[in-house]
Amino acid sequence: MTFETITLERIGDVARLAINRPEKRNAVNEQVHKDIRAAVAEITGGDNPAKALILTGTGDRAFCSGQDLSARKPPEDGPPTRDLGAGLEQYYNALIRRLRDVEMPVITALNGVVAGAGVGVALAGDVILAARSARFVVSFCRVGLIPDAGVTHHLPRIIGENRALAMALTADPLDAETAERWGLVWKVHDDDKLQDEAVALAARLAKLSPRVVQRTRRAIRSAMSNDLNTQLALERDLQREVGFGNDYAEGVRAFLEKREPAFTGT
Fold first, then answer.
1. CA-wise closest residue to 73 among 29, 23, 21
2. Which CATH number does the domain housing residue 11 bear?
3. What sign for the dihedral angle of Cα 192, 193, 196, 199?
4. Which of 26, 31, 137, 218 is the most buried (most CB within 10 A)?
5. Contacts of residue 72, Cβ cutoff 8 Å, sequence gap at least 6
6. What is the tally of structural domains in the chain?
7. What is the helix, strand, coil percentage profile of the chain, to 5?
8. What residues make up the domain containing 24?
């Protein structure tokens, strides 16, 4: 399948999806949403689905500069008439949910500027890698909007309420090294090494048991809202499920035999 605004390639079990609008600093319009939706359907369906996904941007200027505002120009006179809430539900909310729910590890590899809704897309990944030149800009307030695309959910949970508010209200850029120190990204790599490092990590994660990946995500993501007893009960129930699986038996055999496990997702 060919796409208008993204590129999609397979590297073994890894799929790499890149927003491909470098002339617009990879800003998102409706076609980007449609292309990503179609690409995710392609790599998750069929007889040979991908086992890990890398989401990145084309070029070195930007991972994603957020919404393409040229596609949302307000009228010359009077207030805007576009229902931004409806647009969010149809496009960004659907995208963030899809990235969070896709049944494979998702790595976001951030090259260059990460701004506006691009921050939300970046934080939807399971593991976030950044080029040394990456910059985070929560820029919504500059154009009279509140942060969206999941930013108000993910950002304060990762870096704390005060830092999240400061980023949102000032729109000051946050450099990659500070983002790593604050826990916003997993690792920072030199710009020319970012994609290779992302592929290497994705290939590692692709070898994990899909059943275990899904349940580990659920457990970790539930922890911030659950009390201890609820979380312990969830761990018990999820461990019971995977403990009866073939992948657990294979993992133990591989450990005892000092070899790499070959998980099947069962």
1. 29
2. 3.90.226.10
3. negative
4. 26
5. 82
6. 2
7. 50, 15, 35
8. 6-206
Please answer whether residues 118 and 28 qualify as being in contact, where contact means their C-beta atoms are separated by less than 8 angstroms.
Answer: yes
| Structural tokens at position 161 | 């309420």
CB burial of residue 76 (10 Å; 0-12, 13-18, 19+): exposed
pLDDT averaged over consecutive 10-residue blocks of the chain (266 residues)?
94 97 95 96 90 96 93 71 87 95 95 96 97 97 94 96 97 97 97 97 96 94 95 96 95 95 91
Q: Residue 68 half-sphere exposure, CB side, CA atoms within 13 Å? A: 17
pLDDT in tens, 130-143: 999 999 999 999 99
Q: Check whether residue 155 and residue 215 sit in a common domain.
A: no
Share of the chain above pLDDT 90, in %: 89
Cα(203)–Cα(184) distance, integer angstroms: 22
Q: Are 8 and 15 in contact (CB under 8 A)?
A: yes
Angle between helices 161-170 and 151-159 (to 10 degrees): 130
